[in-house]
Design goal:
single chain, 509 residues, alpha/beta, Rossmann fold, Isoleucyl-tRNA Synthetase, Domain 1, six-stranded parallel beta sheet, 20 strands, elongated, binds 5'-O-[(L-methionyl)-sulphamoyl]adenosine, Methionyl/Leucyl_tRNA_Synth, tRNAsynth_Ia_anticodon-bd, ATP-binding
């Protein structure tokens, strides 16, 4: 994949978005998966010297939320107010440095939705008609024949395995069909959807089935919890149209033209593969109708699964974020594990055995042990003061791995970037063993080189574990992390003043 960020900071802008989550319950590990990855990407580009803007939030309208509030005997607004706070608390715990938390019930967003719908109406892209079809409230989506599954003559949702509702109603349609060729062209040639096979899947579906016009309104008699259609107050806007537009509200659309110009062109949108159709066929079309280009990248990841099934509240098989944080005693370990297991192509089965071995192998034994050994040695043999004297031969090895890690970060391949960083740490542990600096009278060169290597690895891990790595760098006497790639040069530090020998990760019981 081509790199996303551009080099010079004046020109380098990046807009990272997560899907906005249905706040019908607290977030689980599946939601954390997307959000943490997005945060890591945003933090990486910021560390590399770009202006990064991270948007996340909650998708608060629609039948799903309305029913959930009713079930609890609550007013929908009170319910989403309460739940949005819960999401914010979880993201705080996980160190998500979002620039804006958007809620679709915000006045600003509702105005944007009305503005866009009026614009599409004025442009003649909306017409009235009748809709009949099978609806899944959990997905907030109609399923056509071939898409739904039939079990014992009952029509079911292919994702949630729930019985679908048959709905027949007057509605308004958006003329997606007009944009069939455009969408196909960007899916096939645009180099936007990553990994590419997701793009091809959607393109093939459109080639076979065509691109049907989309029902974008719901009669208030069925769903009242939504934004009123500006030209017919008997209807509310279909929740998915409302939700997709959050990405524009997030940039101050339509007023803040500078921000839109700077950020939209270098946007990286993260989604799970479950919402691929909405973010391609529908989203690309709406953007085109508004004379906006598609995002720069749509980064699609696969599912976290339990016994092969997508983890989710509807299936009742969720791993709680709290449980995982408690197990490792540090929320940043959750972030690290997510970065390590991230897979865009294949589903990843949740496994405590694997998580424990990542913790023990990568953090405790590899990173943590190296930090402890190197700082102890520096204090014992050099009184903490290591002066610039790089072992050029070993530095070459580190430099190569570092470059790979940077390249993979720039290509949004977080898990591979981490793998190369871990290789730096492995190589450095082996280097100490080989060099045995405790046996020489002049250990400065080896120790300086090892500290440089730890510094580089810590910088590379900084987007993943911001607090832990800052503390480690601090113990080396470095209390400021800069923005830009200059600091990634080996030999950049003139003198280390190691203050303490930390044990950054504790054994788990
Ligand atoms: N509200 C919509 C999105 C609107 S975006 C304009 C929605 N919300 S959701 O809460 O159901 O889920 C959103 C996202 O959570 C998924 O696309 C995915 O990124 C993430 N995940 C939820 N469960 C997951 C797994 N089990 N595995 C991986 N990602 C998961 O859809």
């Amino acid at each position: 994949m081509d790199s996303v960020g551009q080099r010079s900071p004046e020109k380098c802008f990046i807009y990272v978005t997560t899907p906005i989550y249905y706040p019908n319950d607290k977030p689980h590990l599946g939601h954390a998966y997307t959000t943490v990855l997005a945060d890591i990407i945003s933090r990486w580009f910021s560390l590399a010297g770009c202006n990064s803007y991270l948007l996340t939030g909650t998708d608060e309208h629609g039948a799903k939320l309305q029913r959930e509030a009713e079930k609890r005997g609550m007013d929908p607004k009170d319910f989403v107010d309460q739940m949005a706070e819960v999401f914010k608390e979880y993201w705080k715990m996980l160190g998500i440095g979002y620039n804006r938390f958007i809620r679709t019930t915000e006045q600003e967003h509702e105005e944007v939705v009305r503005y866009v719908i009026s614009k599409l109406w004025d442009k003649g892209y909306i017409y009235s008609g009748k809709y009949r079809g099978w609806y899944c409230t959990a997905c907030e989506k109609f399923y056509s024949e071939g898409e739904y599954v039939v079990e014992n003559d009952v029509v079911m949702c292919p994702i949630h395995r729930r019985v679908l509702e048959f709905i027949e109603e007057d509605t308004y349609f958006l003329k997606l069909s007009l944009f069939k060729d455009y969408v196909l062209r960007i899916l096939r040639e645009g180099n936007i959807v990553y990994p590419k096979h997701y793009s091809d899947e959607v393109a093939t579906k459109i080639e076979i089935e065509g691109l049907q016009d989309l029902s974008i309104a719901r009669p208030k008699t069925r769903v009242s919890w939504g934004i009123e259609l500006p030209f017919d107050n008997r209807y509310v806007v279909y929740v998915w149209i409302d939700a997709l537009l959050n990405y524009l509200t997030g940039l101050g659309y339509p007023r803040n033209t500078d921000r839109i110009e700077q950020y939209w062109r270098s946007s990286v949108q993260l989604i799970g593969k479950d919402i691929l159709w909405f973010h391609t066929a529908i989203w690309f079309t709406i953007l085109a109708m508004l004379d906006l280009p598609p995002p720069k990248k749509l980064l699609v990841h696969s599912y976290l699964t339990i016994k092969g099934q997508k983890m989710g509240k509807s299936l009742g098989n969720v791993v709680s974020i709290d449980e995982m944080v408690k197990r490792y005693g540090n929320p940043e370990v959750v972030r690290f594990i997510i970065a390590r297991i991230a897979n865009y192509d294949k589903d990843v089965e949740v496994s405590w055995d694997i998580y424990d071995s990542i913790y023990m192998g990568d953090l405790l034994n590899n990173y943590g042990n190296l930090v402890r050994r190197a700082t102890t040695l520096a204090i014992k043999t050099l009184n903490g003061n290591a002066i610039r004297d790089l072992d050029e031969e070993f530095a070459k090895t580190v430099d190569k791995l570092k470059q790979q890690s940077i390249d993979y970060y720039n290509s949004l391949e977080v898990a591979t970037a981490v793998k190369y960083t871990l290789d730096i740490l492995h190589e450095t542990n082996a280097y100490i063993n080989r060099k045995e600096p405790w046996r020489t009278i002049k250990p400065n060169q080896t120790i300086y080189t090892v500290l440089e290597s730890i510094r580089i690895a810590s910088l590379l891990l900084h987007p993943i574990m911001p607090v832990t790595t800052s503390n480690i760098l601090n113990s080396l006497g470095l209390d400021r992390i800069e923005h830009g790639l200059e600091q990634f040069k080996l030999g950049y530090i003139e003198r280390y003043n190691v203050k303490e020998a930390p044990i950054p990760f504790k054994k788990i019981r």
